[in-house]
């Protein structure tokens, strides 16, 4: 039997095949319509809901809610604050996994509750539920705020720690947007103003730690906190945190252990992070700012902790850093500064460091006057002698090169920050020695020399009353002389208290 | 003995139950709890909560969702609005692109506009003006416009506007939004209305600002019962008769046509407000503050663009449509 015979048996009546085809097609169309109509209906309902929602009146949003979206209820609660609690309870019942609805419910309940012992209140329960259903930053942040408002310290530090652990800036050791943590840190500061105690609350082994933070957590937190304190110009607290950072061992491979999700274990007793190479730049900045703020003692303390130079000790007369030019001047902190603008040194004067010698090359095109080198020195009142050795190459005498020290304390209106682009405008900056020494004579051989000056203030060095004085090596063209062309070499610089 | 302790800087109180009625003890404990909650362990007191749908700036830092208001906290909105619930009970809504600094009993509006509800004892400050509700049920909106000054609209109840010397310069009623511009000419005052005699004193209620003055000076008797424009100076040391809030020392009186406003009488002072008011609207000047009606803008739509509104009304202003009562739509 062939196929046609088979077909004939299946549809014995002529036209039955056509009828069956039509019936099948109609059924398929009906199925399609059956699917399409509800879909279209749903789309129209959603569109209508959006239109109602966009009208933003209580009535229109209520109509939109009947179509059903949890966030519509949140909006209605916003428009009807008196009924917010009821509306948001409905919202959380309709979508118990909506952390946003739980947070809003918590905040609405907070408006109604009497502050006191918070653990029995629905606001806190709602906010804790928000964190349970969505273990992210936002619920932890909301709960931390709530606990702060209710002065519940245990609750606060637990929530604060959870929020901090979820802050992406604290997980990435290379994150630079640490300023975004300012709101979180502000809450912490308001609850605990003492820096050490504050940081202890974020210690992974502390009681408030409920989970393991990322490996970079502690170090990043300290950096963020330091930034925060600098912005607030809280210098003593910034010094405390800077000293803490400076005390950490240097981690030359800071990214290691974070990309693979390695965590610092709870209870491992690690109190802080590791210092990175670029933390030194951060600490340089702190020292510069402390100097600018007139906080000499703090600046010296931080500098001594991390700089790697022999510790400064104004009380014992250790006042100068890197006087032997043993290392290339770092242009910051209490080390020598040689470059005074973004283009580098003064045009026409090229500073060249060689181990134990600093050389300044004059092209003959330098300005009439210019700064060769500067170091900020912590000095109390008294007389001081600067000893040094120098030699010249191809410089005619007198060279026009001399030392000077400035008293910046007399002009508080001036930005006392270490010079980025200092001028030699002595109309605004008073010289400690009003009558400058004559400039140095040329010498092709190494020649010892000294310069004596005095600084105002009590003659009790290192008693916290020390101020930071810029000590400068300058060039000023001598009258009747051509601009210098040659080189000036400097070594063995010592500063002594007389 | 129940002991509630406060951290440094906060008064420590001991409630000895044995010496107090139990109800009183509970009352004191609850009240102390409120104080305690309002001041976290250290630092500035908490004054409220701020909420938003998205992110906003809190003391120059970006925050998402919600945050805590401390004394002096600055809130800056971006594309969305924020809602501030204050411990005092007041509720302030900041519109998009607005900025305000919040204190326990007031907010200094620095940019944009804000809405006040439940503001008993709470007030707005904007460009040296103070806007406060007359009752706890008063609600209203205060807007800053770079060109025209401060605009105030009441939705329910009424709002009082005071100048920097705490002198009442307007009473803003629902449906009658007003725009204010502080003038450089100090205490100069110019108002208009019907001059009536009460117990031998002349009293005038300004048609624009709804502030009632006692007028003293020469030439008032013959203007009694008429609509007049009065020029003079407010005397802050004088005590006005009842119904009036201040005394104006009259330097000049000009009769006005009955039923019509003094068209465009603002002169130079009108310049600053000309973009806001319809032609023909009287510009009152009280205590160095120029005030004029805003028509069809602020109160009617719930938003104010700051651009000139269509000159569709007439008379003494305050004819904005649909400004009073109800809850105006908030921008999303």
Q: What attributes characterize this protein structure?
A:
A: 498 residues, alpha+beta, Jelly Rolls, 3 domains, 5-stranded antiparallel β-sheet, 16% strand, B: 332 residues, mainly beta, OB fold (Dihydrolipoamide Acetyltransferase, E2P), 5-stranded mixed β-barrel, 2 helices, 43% strand, elongated
Per-chain topology:
The complex is a heterodimer of chains A (498) and B (332).
Chain A (H helix, E strand, L loop, with lengths): L2 H8 L5 H40 L2 H10 L2 H10 L4 H11 L4 H14 L9 H12 L3 H13 L3 H13 L16 H10 L3 H7 L15 H15 L3 H13 L2 E2 L23 E2 L2 H14 L3 H11 L42 E6 L2 E7 L5 E11 L2 E12 L7 E7 L22 E2 L15 E9 L11 E10 L8 E13 L1
Parallel strand pairs in A: 1-2
Antiparallel strand pairs in A: 3-4, 4-11, 5-10, 6-9, 6-11, 7-8, 7-10
Chain B lengths: L1 E3 L8 E3 L6 H17 L7 E13 L2 E10 L2 E4 L5 E5 L4 E4 L4 E4 L3 E6 L1 E5 L5 E4 L2 E5 L5 E7 L3 E8 L2 E4 L5 E5 L5 E5 L5 E11 L2 E5 L6 E5 L10 E9 L10 E10 L28 E3 L2 E5 L4 H4 L31
């Amino acid at each position: 039997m062939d196929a046609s015979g088979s077909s004939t048996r299946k549809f014995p009546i002529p036209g039955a095949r056509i009828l069956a085809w039509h019936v099948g097609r109609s059924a398929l169309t009906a199925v399609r319509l059956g699917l399409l109509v509800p879909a279209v209906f749903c789309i129209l309902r959603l569109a209508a809901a959006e239109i109602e929602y966009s009208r933003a009146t209580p009535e229109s949003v209520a109509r939109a809610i009947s179509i059903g979206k949890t966030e519509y209820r949140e909006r209605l609660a916003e428009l009807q604050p008196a009924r917010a609690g009821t509306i948001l309870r409905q919202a959380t019942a309709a979508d118990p996994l909506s952390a946003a609805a739980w947070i809003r419910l918590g905040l609405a309940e907070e408006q109604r509750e009497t502050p006191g012992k918070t653990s029995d209140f629905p606001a806190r329960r709602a906010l804790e539920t928000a964190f349970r259903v969505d273990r992210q930053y936002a619920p932890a942040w909301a709960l931390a705020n709530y606990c702060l408002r209710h002065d519940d310290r245990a609750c606060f530090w637990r929530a604060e720690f959870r929020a901090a652990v979820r802050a992406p800036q604290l997980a990435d050791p290379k994150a630079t947007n640490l300023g975004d943590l300012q709101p979180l840190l502000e809450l912490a500061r308001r609850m605990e103003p003492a820096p050490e105690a504050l940081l202890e609350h974020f210690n992974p082994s502390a009681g408030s730690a409920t989970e393991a933070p990322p490996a970079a957590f502690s170090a990043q937190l300290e950096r963020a906190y330091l930034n925060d304190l600098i912005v607030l110009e809280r210098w003593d607290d910034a010094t405390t945190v800077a000293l803490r950072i400076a005390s950490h061992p240097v981690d030359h491979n800071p990214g290691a252990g974070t990309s693979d999700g390695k965590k610092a274990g709870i209870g491992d007793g690690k109190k802080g992070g590791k210092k990175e190479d670029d933390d030194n730049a951060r600490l340089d900045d702190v020292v510069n700012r402390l100097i600018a703020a007139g906080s000499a003692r703090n600046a010296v303390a931080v500098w001594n902790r991390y700089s790697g130079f022999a510790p400064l000790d104004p009380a014992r007369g250790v006042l100068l850093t890197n006087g032997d030019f043993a290392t290339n001047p770092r242009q910051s902190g209490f080390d020598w500064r040689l470059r005074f603008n973004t283009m580098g040194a003064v045009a026409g004067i090229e500073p060249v460091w060689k181990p134990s010698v600093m050389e300044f090359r004059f092209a003959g095109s330098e300005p009439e006057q210019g700064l060769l080198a500067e170091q900020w020195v912590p000095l109390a009142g008294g007389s001081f002698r600067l000893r040094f050795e120098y030699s010249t190459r191809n410089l005619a005498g007198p060279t026009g090169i001399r030392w000077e020290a400035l008293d910046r304390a007399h002009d508080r209106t001036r930005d006392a920050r270490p010079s980025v682009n200092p001028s030699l405008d002595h109309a605004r900056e008073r010289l400690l020695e009003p009558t400058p020494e004559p400039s140095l004579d040329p010498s092709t051989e190494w020649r010892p020399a000294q310069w004596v000056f005095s600084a105002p203030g009590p003659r009790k060095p290192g008693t916290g009353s020390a101020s930071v004085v810029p000590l400068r090596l300058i060039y000023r063209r001598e009258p009747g002389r051509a601009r210098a062309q040659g080189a000036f070499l400097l070594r063995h610089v010592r500063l002594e208290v007389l | 003995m129940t002991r509630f302790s406060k951290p440094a800087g906060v008064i420590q109180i001991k409630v000895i139950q044995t010496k107090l009625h139990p109800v009183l003890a509970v009352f004191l404990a609850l009240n102390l709890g409120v104080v305690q909650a309002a001041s976290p362990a250290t630092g500035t007191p908490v004054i409220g909560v701020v909420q938003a749908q998205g992110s906003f700036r809190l003391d120059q830092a970006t925050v998402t969702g919600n945050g805590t208001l401390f004394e002096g906290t600055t809130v800056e909105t971006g594309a969305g609005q924020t809602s501030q619930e204050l411990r005092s009970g007041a509720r302030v809504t900041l519109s998009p692109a607005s900025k305000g600094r919040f204190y326990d009993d007031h907010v200094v509006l620095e940019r944009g506009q804000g809405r006040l509800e439940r503001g008993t004892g709470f007030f707005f400050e904007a460009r040296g003006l103070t806007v406060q509700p007359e009752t706890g049920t008063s609600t209203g909106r205060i807007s800053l416009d770079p060109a025209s000054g401060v605009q105030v609209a009441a939705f329910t109840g009424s709002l009082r506007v005071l100048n920097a010397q705490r002198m009442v310069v307007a009473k803003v009623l629902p449906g009658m939004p007003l725009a204010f511009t502080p003038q450089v000419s100090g205490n100069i005052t110019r108002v208009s209305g019907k001059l009536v005699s009460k117990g031998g004193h002349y009293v005038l209620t300004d048609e624009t600002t709804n502030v009632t003055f006692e007028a003293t000076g020469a030439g008032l008797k013959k203007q009694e019962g008429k609509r007049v424009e009065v020029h003079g100076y407010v005397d802050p040391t004088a005590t006005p008769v009842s119904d009036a809030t201040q005394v104006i020392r009259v330097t000049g009186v000009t009769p006005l046509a009955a039923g019509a406003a003094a068209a465009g009488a603002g002169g130079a002072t009108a310049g600053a407000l000309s973009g806001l008011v319809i032609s023909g609207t009287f510009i009152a000047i009280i205590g160095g503050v120029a005030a004029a009606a805003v028509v069809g803008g602020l109160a009617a739509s719930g938003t104010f663009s700051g651009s000139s509104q269509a000159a569709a009304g007439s008379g003494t202003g305050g004819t904005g449509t649909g400004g009073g009562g109800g809850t105006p739509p908030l921008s999303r």
